[in-house]
Amino acid sequence: MVERISDAEHEIMEVLWTQSPLTATEVADRVVESKGWSLQTVKTLLSRLAAKAVLGTQRDGRKFLYTPLVERDAYLAGVSRKFVDRLFGGKVTPLVAHLADADELSDEDIREIEELLRELKA
Q1: Which of 29, 51, 68 finishes a domain?
Q2: Buried b (16+ CB within 10 A) or exposed e, 3-23
Q3: Hey, which of 12, 16, 41, 87 has its CA 20 to 30 A from 76?
Q4: pTM value?
Q5: 19-41 confidence digits (pLDDT tens)
């Protein structure tokens, strides 16, 4: 399992999961408007992710290209499992019940869950 990444690091990973490899400047171009981060902030986050072995780096002249070393689905599976384990004793049913009790499930969510359950049973 990958070491925990911060919310800011996750924003960087989402960019790179969408398209890679990218330079720090290219990553910054994709988050500067929505996050207001400077290029230096993006470089710091990229360095942290590389140190955590979540990103690979490759020198390209004077720049570095960054590529995810962890697939998005694998990361989300691990984070989701830890969340369910920590807060719901490893059981998904109490999570769904909690969301239903808090009126967090839309009719569309319920329909999708029912469809998923039908597929799992088949």
Answers
A1: 68
A2: eebeebbebbbebbbeebbbe
A3: 41
A4: 0.80
A5: 999 999 999 999 988 899 999 99
